Amino acid sequence: MFKRIPGTKDILPEEALTWQKIEEASRKIFFLYNYREIRTPILEQANLFNRTLGENTEIVQKQMFLIPHAEDCYALRPEGTASIARAYIENNLDKTSVFLKLYYLGPMFRFERPQKGRMRQFHHLGCEVIGTEEAYIDIEIICLAGVILEELGIKGYQFELNTLGCSKDKNGLKELLNDRLKDNLQHFCPECKVRFNRNILRILDCKKKACQEIIAKSDISHTHLCPECKAHFHLVREGLNSLGIKYRINPYLVRGLDYYNRTVFEIKHPGLGAQDALGAGGRYDQLIHELGGPVTGAMGFAFGIERLLLVMNNTPTDNGKDLVYVIALGEQAKKETLKLLVNLRKSGICADTDYTSRSLKASLRGAGNLQAKYVVIIGEDELKKGTLTLKNMLSGEQKEIKATDLIQTLKTDIKCCARTPAGN
Ligand code: AMP
Known about the structure:
The protein is an alpha+beta fold. The chain is built from 15 helices and 16 strands. The protein has helices at 13-32, 46-53, 58-63, 81-90, 135-151, 167-181, 190-198, 209-216, 227-242, 287-290, 305-311, 331-346, 360-369, 380-385, 406-413, and strands at residues 36-37, 43-45, 65-68, 73-76, 100-109, 121-130, 158-163, 247-249, 261-268, 277-283, 298-304, 324-328, 351-352, 374-378, 387-392, 398-402. Helix 5 packs parallel to helix 9 (227-242). The chain is elongated and about 90 Å long. Mean pLDDT is 92; it is low at 419-424. Bound molecules: adenosine monophosphate. Adenosine monophosphate binds next to strand 6, strand 10, strand 11 and helix 11.
């Protein structure tokens, strides 16, 4: 028997309803904030990620799903930003408006050791604003992330905020860290010893207690920032304060990817356990230019959908449908049911049957299991008279109506087609 690959998941219909809820809620908020959806391929040239995330990042070093090919090496995308930057340049999207607000939803792939909240195939729900360095965008994006969480009914999260400064400042920060940490190098874990030389900022992300203790003593403040970056960060904080958005400044929050600069943020939730970030993001003002595009500021963030699910209240709700279940008693009735179902569905009414020759009692039980709101019974007698029996499953009320009146009765009296399928 085949099994799913560790770190992947089957999203079964019951759970898929909650996924649809998340997707619908976030699409609604992105719409209100005037974002438009972008869908990029899951496969990209591996080099796109090597170049943008950085050769020395953990994702590139250890976590990429690579597909070597005669002509090139492809990768299953580990994140969305690099692909969107590529698409922005390749499709000349800078020509379409002053700045572009894009959102995306979809699977990402990282070869990690699976654990709670850490998958090999997981899903991002994220957005990017390309075309401006304005701090107001940083504020709006952080605000937007909070609004999505509110819409999903998620509480108890905390924003952590920091600035890395421009590339010069970032180099200053690396030097500062080098200076503060070098005397303690022997006490770091083996990975951090490697990070010290390859990607020193990443040391700050280490979860090991011994490393954290040394880091906590390193006392990094914002001394590495130039006046412009200080002013930018000041504006971001002022804006967040004016909107009443609570956050904690965390000077140790660096986000290990090469492309980040200036504002970076993370949204933490104590309900998640060790992998405590619900989402994260930041500015990447050099990335578009480095990939061959125009000089332009940009910022984005992504939530991990699996982690949103871990902290959402997932009490099962109804299936979101006003299902009309048809029970056909006898062969002739089954034939009539075929036509009846086509007409019900054409009228926008969700309808079903199982075409089995069960007893009325068993079929009613089946309808109940499917959470049908209404049952239509067609038997020999009804066929002769041109009528149907309509049963309201909630009230138990049952009445005989003319077959030709069914759709109108359902539409007007019962208003069963008031809802549309999820996502529409
Ligand atoms: P990152 O691109 O690493 O900043 O990730 C953004 C968000 O995606 C994180 O805050 C998590 O919520 C989620 N995420 C990242 N990696 C994984 C993973 N391996 N499994 C599940 N969710 C993840």
